[in-house]
Design goal:
The protein is α/β, with parallel strands linked by helices and 511 residues long. The protein contains 14 helices and 18 strands. Helix content is 32%, strand content 24%. The protein has a nine-stranded mixed beta sheet, with helices on both faces. A five-stranded parallel beta sheet has the order 12-11-10-13-14, sandwiched between helices. Helix 6 (226-239) links the parallel strand 10 and strand 11. The longest helix is centred in the middle third of the chain and has 23 residues, at 292-314. The radius of gyration is 25 Å and the shape is globular. Bound molecules: adenosine-5'-triphosphate, xanthosine-5'-monophosphate, glutamine and magnesium ion. Xanthosine-5'-monophosphate (XMP) binds at residues 296, 327-328, 331, 341, 343-345, 388, 390-392, 432, 466, 503, 507-509. InterPro entries: Class_I_gatase-like, GATASE, GMP_synth_C, GMP_synth_GATase, GMP_synthase, GMPS_ATP_PPase_dom, Rossmann-like_a/b/a_fold. The active site is at 82 (nucleophile), 169, 171.
């Protein structure tokens, strides 16, 4: 590859892609690779720099993730962050142990701005610390370039070998000058020039897809959502009509959604498009299932079975394209990260899949980056800015068992909610909003009669990357209107609640 590359070596932890994203924000292409990636693979990619991420382990534990110490001899600049910094010390002969005092949260540090890493950084600056271990003895050849009250070694450098490490997290917003430190690392230490853009991402992906797919046939799992639509357009740019898009109506879509998706993709785009009506088989498989992870896995597997069947009808199909994006990957528990929920298209994949390979061209990107790719590809704005809708659909918004009757109730309630939000002019201000059918029934009174019906919860959040989110303060008056309309018009709903939790501690979807 002819472009500048920085590799982020992933040692676990939820926010690692943020580092990659910060690097890309400086127009330097960046890839995240697992910590145990073979050093030969790294050498072959010839990165301008390498960043070691944080991680939950302690370097002195027996099976803590590690890397080949030869990496420090490649002459490639390395920045270790938190666990990564501790590992760099440990592998170079320093000593890491449990700190007498753990540090968590915003912390004042004093930096030595004669280090290239801290050029133009304020001497006394704030950073986010999150560690229980610390560097007790600095490795030979290294010197200390920052300290805090409880952490005598808050940053280290070995400028001869271009090795740098920080105990804190420069990638998060709680470290206001962290971006500047990363910039120093990229431009002053690695010598990057920052010539990578979204249009180069498109060119690079198209070239890669052309080469990979050759003259073979490929299916794209198309939901009509942003990620798969952008993937489909990208693949179609690369291999044209060798691509067939498969859209599955699993009976868990929003009201009218299936017809709308079909309309757009048959009328507005020049692609092969197949709609599969598979409602009943999904309902059958989900009957009696209440556990959220089981529901997700069943749906993930059934999706693949449908794709396999459709592939057989077309002839030999080698590849399946999915619109997986980074948050889907990380929350499904990739490598050393914890499983938050199995996104159907990642953790929900069955072990055996009848395709030679699954291609995920957007796997490394965040949602807002995917949207920029969509715009770059000339896709219409209303498609690019659609709110996301999860693959398992209403199944993860119906708490407990999914039945066709419950789907119908939720579709109607959700439709009213979305319509009223749009009428109130709030749709562009909210990143994602939807109704949830709780498993709770309660007593109400309507027309002098007792009712015993469902509670619907309403959710609305703002976020840029969907990794964290805040709930939205929808005006009471709008909420009141929505509540009255749903209870009046949707049978079997007699109570409405509004969800006021952020992510974390909640997630955006309820299951
Ligand atoms: N109904 C469906 N039919 C076919 N493929 C689907 C369907 N739902 C989801 N998928 C596949 O699973 C992937 C992940 O779904 P996800 O909802 O994250 O992405 P999306 O629907 O493309 O975009 P968005 O996040 O905007 O909804 C999709 O990109 C697509 O490949
Ligand atoms: O394709 C998907 N398959 C899934 O299984 C899935 N689960 C959640 N989501 C969407 O991802 C974003 C983050 O959701 P959570 O905060 O609920 O994890 C939100 O935008 C969710 O709607 C999914 N998308
Ligand atoms: N956030 C981290 O990387 C933590 C690293 C290490 N486990 C510590 O607690 O010090
Ligand atoms: Mg979707």
């Amino acid at each position: 590859m002819d472009k500048e590359l920085v590799i982020v070596l992933d040692f676990g932890g939820q926010y690692n892609q943020l580092i990659a994203r910060r690097v890309r924000e400086f127009n330097v292409y960046c890839e995240v690779l697992p910590y145990n990636t073979d050093i030969e693979v790294i050498k072959e990619k010839a990165p301008k720099g390498i960043i070691f991420t944080g991680g939950a382990n302690s370097v002195y534990e027996p099976d803590a993730p590690s890397c080949d110490p030869k990496i420090f001899e490649l002459g490639i600049p390395i920045l270790g962050i938190c666990y990564g910094c501790q590992l760099m010390s440990h592998l170079n002969g320093g000593k890491v142990g449990k700190a007498p005092k753990r540090e968590y949260g915003k912390t004042e540090i004093e930096v030595d701005s004669s280090s290239k890493l801290f050029e133009n950084v304020t001497r006394n600056t704030t950073c986010l610390m999150s560690h229980t271990d610390y560097i007790e003895t600095v490795a030979p050849g290294f010197r200390v370039i920052a300290k805090s009250e409880s952490c005598p070694v808050a940053a280290i450098e070995n400028p001869e070998k271009n090795l740098y490490g920080v105990q804190f997290h420069p990638e998060v917003e709680h470290t206001p000058e962290g971006v500047l430190m990363l910039k120093n690392f990229l431009f002053k230490i690695c010598g990057c020039t920052g010539d990578w853009t979204m249009s180069s991402f498109v060119d690079m992906s198209v070239r890669y897809l052309k080469e990979k797919i050759g003259d073979k046939k490929v299916l794209c799992a198309l939901s009509g959502g942003v990620d798969s639509s952008v993937s489909a357009v990208l693949v179609s740019k690369a291999v044209g009509k060798q691509l067939t898009c498969i859209f599955v109506d699993h009976g868990l879509l929003r009201k009218n959604e299936a017809d709308e998706v079909e309309e757009v993709f048959t009328k507005k785009f020049d692609v092969n498009f197949i709609r599969v009506n598979a409602q009943q088989r999904f309902y059958d498989k989900l009957a009696g299932v209440t556990d959220p992870e089981s529901k997700r896995k069943i749906i993930g597997e059934e999706f693949i079975r449908v794709f396999e069947e459709e592939a057989k009808k077309i002839g030999k199909v080698d590849y399946l394209v999915q619109g997986t994006i980074y948050p889907d990957v990380i929350e499904s528990g990739l490598g050393k990260s914890a499983v938050i929920k199995s996104h159907h298209n990642v953790g929900g994949l069955p072990d055996y899949v009848d395709f030679k390979e699954i291609i995920e061209p957007l796997r490394d990107l965040f949602k807002d980056e995917v949207r920029r790719v969509g715009l770059e590809l000339g896709m219409p704005e209303h498609l690019v800015y659609r709110q996301p809708f999860p693959g398992p659909g209403l199944a993860v918004r119906i708490i407990g068992e999914v039945t066709p009757e419950k789907v119908k109730i939720l579709q109607e309630a959700d439709y009213i909610y979305r319509e009223e939000i749009a009428k109130a002019g709030l749709d562009r201000k909210i990143s994602q909003y939807f109704a949830v059918l709780t498993n709770l029934r309660s007593v109400g009174v309507m027309g002098d009669e007792r009712t015993y019906d469902y509670t619907v919860a309403l959710r609305a959040v703002t976020t840029t990357d969907f990794m964290t989110a805040e709930y939205v303060e929808i005006p009471w008056e709008v909420l009141g209107r929505i509540s009255r309309k749903i209870v009046n018009e949707v049978k079997h709903v007699n109570r409405i609640c509004y969800d006021i939790t952020g992510k974390p501690p909640a997630t955006i979807e309820w299951e």
